Fold:
Amino acid sequence: MSEANRQFTHLHLHTEYSLLDGACRIDRLFERVKELGQTAVAITDHGVMYGTVDFYKAAKKAGVKPIIGCEVYVAPRTRFDKVHRIDSANYHLVLLCENETGYKNLIKLVSAGFVDGFYNKPRVDHDLLRQHHEGLIALSACLAGEIPQALLAGDVDKARETALFYKELFGPDHYYLEIQDHGLREQREVLPQIIRLARELDIPLVATNDSHYLTKEDSRMHHILICIQTGKTVEDDDILEFGSDEFYVKSTDEMYGLFPMAPEACENTNKIAGMCNFDFEFGVTKLPYFEAPGGQDNKAYFRDLCEAGLQRHYGPKAPPAVRERLEYELDVIIKMGYVDYYLIVYDFIHYAKTHDIPVGPGRGSGAGSLCAYCIGITGIDPIRYHLLFERF
Structure:
């Protein structure tokens, strides 16, 4: 590829949503990307995804392709192990959404990292990655990744074993060994080893710059952020691991210039950008899915609950007007796609009532639903009090 036509995509970037760590402000990021002539960029905040919608909308407005991702923390053992010192450390891994399946898997990983794995940081583990890897592209991350850490420790066999694990898990086209060069001694030490490992194991390389701020001049601002995070002052020498002012959104020429020994690593950023095609769908109601007991059909299960409640409240021979009202509501609820909503609310109300947790009789327009009354969500008879289902 000629220098005039070559392109680069930043796939490892931290916005302000990497709190007190990332300083790539979303409202300025896309000006910088377009200024550099780049056409796509990823968001990979540390362990969180709450910046993705703002990032996506700003990217679309700017005419830049958004790539949704996250730099997750991987527990050294399992996400459930939380022993001081033994489990205090964690490894980094960059995950990018190839498609909607990948996005759904990534949000499951990130959520489980907080719910099950939180120990200093939200953590996932290999078992969780086995369950939710489909539709994701993985990069081996920075110096804090599993492979660089093994190489720095002199354990080449562990680095090789880990690389093969991820290659087998994600697939040969969905796992990349990441190379970086911010002028740090440790990076210069592991860089040739990562390249050698990639060629030995036939794993593709990808170049990133672990961007934490937009321009080189912003490094001072980022330095102050890190001081706030670590409780240090700007005069302290032992602040954090950055130790260079090269963690910015670099130009295409700068990135290719860093890795003349492996130009394919820069070219692969564009290949990955081409593979990642996920779009949010706004303005459409998306309800969680309820799993009915025994794999029953949700609509049939909902109808059975309503029928049982109808007999409980109105006897085995309910008045025709009540029966007609129930059928009318069922028809509307099913057509509108609200069966799962009713079942989810029923599930937690039923749990509360069977575990001595106080529950009120209902309030607002929901009390006008006969179906809600029959399945125990509310305790007010809408027929007796002439309440309107239409209000709900």
The chain is about 45% helix and 10% strand.
